[in-house]
Amino acid sequence: MDLVVFYILAGVTVLASIGVVSQRNPMHSVMLLIVSFAGLAGIYIQLDAPFTAVTQIIIYAGAIMVLFLFVVMLLNAHTEDDVIPSRLGPHALKLAVLLSLVLVFELASAIMKLDRASFDAATGSISSVSAIGSQLYKTDGYAFAFEVTSVLILVSMVGAVVIARRPRKESRER
Amino acid sequence: MVTLNNYLILSGILFSIGTAGVFLRRNLITILLSVEIMLNAVNVTFVAAGRFRGLVDGQIITFFVMTVAAAEAAVGLALVIALFRHRETLSPDAFTSLKW
C-alpha cells in the first residue's frame, strides 16, 4: 500500500518535471512545476514530515511560483526563439540526453553501494513541529544559521530591487 | 515497504531532469525553473535521510534550502528582467558580451 502511494506520487512528480523541461511555453512550465511540487509535498507527508510538506506548498507553490508567474506575464514572452543555431553541432540534443542518462545511472549505482547500516534504524516518529522548532532555535543548534538567513533574505531583497530598477536619467545621459 | 533507496533514486531522477533542463533549454525562465527542480531533488534526499536516521536535521536543512531558493529566484528573476530590457530576448545565446 505504501509502495503504491509512493509510486503514484513519484510518477506524478517525475512526469510533471519532464513536462516542465519539455514545454515550450514558460507559463505551462510554471504550472507543471506547481504540480510537481504538490507531488513532492505528498512524498514529504509519506516521509513523516508534515511541516516540510506545508512549507513546500506555502513557500514554493505560494510564493516562488507566483514570482515566476509575474515575471512570465510581465515579460510577455510566450515562446522561445527556436531558430538559434547551436554552436555545438547537430547532435547536441542527443549528446545532452545521453549525458543526463549517464548521470542517472551514476547516481543510481552510487545509491546502490550506499552503506545502509546506519540508516535502517528507522525509529519512532519525528514529525512533531516542536522538535523541529526547538532544534532550530537552540543556540548550539541552528540558531546562528537561522539568523544569518535573515541577512541573506535582506541582501537578496535589496539586490533584486537594485538590479531590476530602471536606470536613472542622469546615469543614462552620461 | 518503501526503502531509502526508493527516495534516493527518485531524487536522482529529478536531479537529472533538472540538469538536462539547464543544458537543453534556450529560455532563461525555464533554466531557472530547472534549477528549482534540482534544489527540490536535493530536498527529498535530506528529508529521506533524516527520516531513516530518526533525526529532524534533514527537515531543518530543507528549510534553509527553501530560503536560499527563494533568494535565488528573486535575484535571478531581477536579472532576467534587467537582461530582457536590454536585448528584448530571453535566449541565453544573446548575452555573450562578456565572452572573450
Give short descriptive properties of this protein.
heterodimer; A: 174 residues; mainly alpha; Four Helix Bundle (Hemerythrin (Met), subunit A); 2 domains; 7 helices; 72% helix; B: 100 residues; Helix Hairpins; 3 helices
What does this structure look like?
Chain A is mainly alpha-helical and 174 residues long. Chain A folds into 2 domains: 79 residues, Four Helix Bundle (Hemerythrin (Met), subunit A), CATH 1.20.120.1200; 46 residues. Chain A is built from 7 helices and no strands. In chain A, helix 1 runs antiparallel to helix 2 and helix 2 runs antiparallel to helix 3. The termini of chain A are far apart. Chain B is mostly helical and 100 residues long. Chain B contains 3 helices and no strands. In chain B, helix 2 runs antiparallel to helix 3. The relative contact order of chain B is 0.13.
Helix content of chain B: over 70%
Compute the number of structural domains of chain A. Answer: 2
CATH superfamily heading of the largest domain in chain A: NADH-ubiquinone/plastoquinone oxidoreductase chain 6, subunit NuoJ
Q: Kindly estimate the percentage of residues of chain B that lie in beta strands according to DSSP.
A: under 5%
Which pair has the most extensive contact? Answer: A-B, 83 and 73 residues
Q: Percentage of helical residues of chain A?
A: over 70%
CATH structural class of the domain at 26-90 in chain B: Mainly Alpha
Which residues of chain A form runs of ≥5 with pLDDT under 50?
A: none
What's the rounded overall pLDDT mean of chain B? 88
Do you know the CATH architecture of the domain at 26-90 in chain B?
Answer: Orthogonal Bundle
For the secondary structure, the number of strands of chain A is 0
What is the oligomer described by this structure?
Answer: heterodimer
Mean of all residue-level pLDDT scores of chain A = 83
The SSE string of chain B, one letter per element, is HHH
- CATH architecture of the largest domain in chain A, please? Up-down Bundle
